[in-house]
């Protein structure tokens, strides 16, 4: 009795079941997140983004405006420039501290969550379809979100972008090395990493297919 009470204090149920989802950003030089979307993500889970190549961001938007930062407290990794590399599963945490990571803490799964890459140089990655979703629904699908992002490319004029669209990048860019604490799950969790519920993200690897880089 006492033992379980202690457990209840140290390890709330949500923490004990927390899953870590892994997503590569720009892997193999593509303008993609892989996987493109995750379902079944629960409050308390984390989504860890691995920046594989080029100079991408993970920036939170809305379904209605796929390529516009939600602002305020919405997530934004800032730009994470890296040399062109290919991230393979053997560098998933924390096997390669050289790869910058950005961790999104899932705190509210009552609605889908939408993300895009804010890079616009030399082309808009978002309008090229570089978008990502957590828990899309039947009514708000990933495909619809991506199509809306791509549609901006034709409707929003020929954006011969200057390098710097105002992406308040002074804010949150985290150092590459510090963010990927290898074996350290949230210290609230009393369970070892082995017991982390593993998402089905791996099953989606390779499902991205080909995204035309020029759109
Ligand atoms: C993610 O998006 C892909 C591409 O549109 C789709 O085929 C797949 O069903 C989606 N996955 C989930 C889990 O929603
Ligand atoms: C880490 O990477 C090395 C070299 O690629 C590989 O041999 C090793 O199996 C990896 N370890 C883990 C835990 O992924
Ligand atoms: C994500 O990374 C964690 C931590 O290394 C690992 O335990 C888990 O298997 C990975 N998940 C997937 C779906 O690859
Ligand atoms: C979660 O988000 C929804 C939609 O924005 C909001 O109505 C709800 O209050 C939020 N719940 C919590 C616990 O923040
Ligand atoms: C999805 O759309 C249908 C038809 O517009 C509507 O009846 C249903 O309530 C919607 N479901 C959700 C979860 O919004
Ligand atoms: C690009 O925009 C300029 C001015 O907004 C316009 O004059 C030009 O015709 C457009 N070019 C294309 C290919 O849409
Ligand atoms: C990354 O992209 C941003 C926005 O285009 C740019 O300001 C920054 O200089 C780039 N960083 C590198 C190292 O290329
Ligand atoms: C940058 O910050 C300003 C003022 O806070 C805001 O109006 C603007 O939308 C932000 N731009 C981006 C791209 O986040
Ligand atoms: C996510 O949660 C971890 C562990 O609680 C914390 O260290 C990190 O600062 C959080 N990240 C953000 C962006 O809130
Ligand atoms: C424990 O979890 C709470 C809420 O989930 C969070 O605010 C706090 O920062 C966490 N503490 C540590 C050490 O991660
Ligand atoms: C990157 O290349 C590896 C090895 O060919 C492949 O397994 C993976 O699906 C590719 N990922 C993307 C996003 O292209
Ligand atoms: Cu990008």
Description of the structure:
The strands form three sheets. Strands 1, 2, 4, 8 and 11 form a five-stranded mixed beta sheet that branches. A four-stranded mixed beta sheet has the order 3-10-9-6, with helices on one face. It has a two-stranded antiparallel sheet with strand order 5-7. Strand 1 and strand 2 form a beta hairpin. It is of the alpha/beta class and 215 residues long. It is globular. The chain is 14% helix and 18% strand. It has four helices and eleven strands; from the N terminus they run ααββββββββββαβα. The longest helix is centred in the last third of the chain and has 14 residues, at 142-155. It binds 2-acetamido-2-deoxy-beta-D-glucopyranose (11 copies) and copper (II) ion. Residues 103, 105, 186 line the site of one 2-acetamido-2-deoxy-beta-D-glucopyranose (NAG).
List the defining traits of the structure above:
alpha/beta, five-stranded mixed beta sheet, binds 2-acetamido-2-deoxy-beta-D-glucopyranose, 215 residues, globular, disordered C terminus, 4 helices, 18% strand
In short:
The chain has 215 residues and is of the alpha/beta class. Helix content is 14%, strand content 18%. The strands form 3 sheets. Strands 1, 2, 4, 8 and 11 form a 5-stranded mixed sheet that branches. A 4-stranded mixed sheet has the order 3-10-9-6, covered by helices on one side.
Summarize the amount of helix as a percent range: 10-25%
- How many helices? The count is 4
Number of beta strands: 11
Structural class: alpha/beta
Distance between the termini: 62 Å
Rg for CA atoms: 18 Å
Q: Which stretches are low in confidence, meaning pLDDT under 50 for 5 or more residues running?
A: 4-14, 159-215
Bound molecules: 2-acetamido-2-deoxy-beta-D-glucopyranose, copper (II) ion
State mean pLDDT (0 to 100 scale): 71
Categorize the overall geometry: globular
The description of the largest β-sheet is: 5 strands, mixed
Strand content: 15-25%
Q: Order of helices and strands, N to C?
A: HHEEEEEEEEEEHEH
